[in-house]
Design brief:
Blueprint (H helix, E strand, L loop, with lengths): L2 H6 L1 E2 L2 E2 L3 H8 L4 H16 L5 H16 L12 E4 L3 H16 L8 E4 L4 E2 L2 E2 H8 L15 E4 L2 H5 L4 E4 L6 H8 L9 E4 L4 E4 L2 E4 H9 L2 E6 L4 H5 L4 E6 L3 H11 L4 E6 L2 H23 L4 H22 L6 H5 L1 H13 L1 H12 L3 H9 L6 H15 L6 H11 L12
Parallel strand pairs: 3-4, 3-8, 4-7, 8-9, 9-12, 13-14
Antiparallel strand pairs: 1-2, 5-6, 10-11, 12-13
Helix pairs in contact: 3-4, 8-9, 12-13, 12-15, 12-16, 12-18, 12-19, 15-16, 16-17, 18-19
The structure holds nicotinamide-adenine-dinucleotide (NAD) and SN-glycerol-3-phosphate (G3P).
SN-glycerol-3-phosphate (G3P) binds next to α12, α15 and α16.
Length: 418
Amino acid sequence: MQASLARSLQTSRGPLLTHRTRTATLSGHCYHSRARQTLAPTLVTMGYRSSAREAISDAYHTVRRRRHADTPRHHAKEKIAIIGSGNWGSAIAMLVGQNVLTHPDSFDDHVPMYVHEEEINGRKLTEIINEEHENVKYLPGIKLPDNVQAIPDLAEAVDGATALIFVLPHQFIPSICRDLRGKIPKHGVKAISLIKGVDVKGTNIAIFADVIESLLNVSCSALSGANIADEVAKGAFSETTVGYRRKVDGVMWQKLFQNENFHVQIIDDVAGVSLCGALKNVVAVAAGFSDGLGWGNNSKAAIMRIGLLEMKKFSMEFFQGVRPETFVQESAGVADLITTCFGGRNRKCAEAYVKTGKPFDVLEKQLLNGQKLQGVETAREVHNFLQARGRVDEYPLFRTVYEIAYKSLEPSKITAKL
Ligand SMILES: NC(=O)c1ccc[n+]([C@@H]2O[C@H](COP(=O)([O-])OP(=O)(O)OC[C@H]3O[C@@H](n4cnc5c(N)ncnc54)[C@H](O)[C@@H]3O)[C@@H](O)[C@H]2O)c1
Ligand SMILES: O=P(O)(O)OC[C@H](O)CO
């Protein structure tokens, strides 16, 4: 059983593991019997494992890996692969492409980037990126370093990589991970999720760092923060937060991403970092409704305050080990909420929803030029999960965003239940 899933997967009976049983599980003592009874079947239920035997075997190897995780070994260079090339994926490619050259002792200088191929005016996007060193569709006007290579074949992009950066809209992650299975080594590879979303199946919910760990058997950190991609790409000062499982990984990711204008804090809270990134998108939709109604700054500030409390309450209720201070002290928490409620795509589309009355899928196409709206989908997923758990009424802002987006509730009712 993956120890990380033990932290975050839930059953209808509530949290799977207490802190004490989790500690024992991580040290291997009660692992087999506990996994057999509860955790392995949950993985199978969520579709991440085809059998309990497979889940138990994976968990055994995860526990062994973690026991040795912080033991320094050889200092081979990390070989990076970026999986994703959208707006944030391209900004990260720019940053990482530059940084591997700054740290030649730590990182291989070649940075392959998986690109979901498409044609732009009769030319392949990969061809344009590799010849002009610019992602003209998703990050126009920003030059990528020459050592970033766009690759349309997923297996080729990750070939030989020891450190995988997942940066795709969340709806594509399960299928990408399934495509990757068997294509990366069983040992020695680590990953980081830059994805802002959650994976919901009935009464179960998981962060994508856990989905990636489970499907690929790699240790997965998470990065999230107040990071509007265009601003980061232009070099404007920003901060971000990396949540790590093993400090040694957190330090490595910090070295890879940090530069003088992009500051990286590392903390021991993968779930908190991931959930802040996912749930702030729902609050940003509410903020956009408020903007569309022309309600002004006081209303938006109130929505943000209430939204932050629901984000924290939800995370603490359904995930083990989340740190409350992540929500108020880290870039992933309050800072990301602020930037997204003022400058993000979710806010923008929700404002247009109120002003034009057009459906969100139409607005996504018209306003985002292929980029993906995450908050409306996350509002639906969170609502379905809360409904399955009988907890919808406890989260009135999340509920109202869902009802406006999916049940034709008047946007002016956004504060009616608060
Ligand atoms: N853009 C930002 O400012 C920003 C900042 C921080 C975090 N994020 C998060 O990073 C993640 C990735 O966002 P983004 O902005 O890079 O992406 P994006 O919104 O620009 O999404 C478009 C990407 O999805 C790809 N795509 C389309 N169909 C696909 C398919 N069937 N399979 C695989 N890929 C497909 C496209 O090729 C493109 O690369 C999201 O979870 C987002 O919330 C975004
Ligand atoms: O444009 P959004 O709303 O997807 O938000 C972008 C980033 O997540 C902000 O940190």
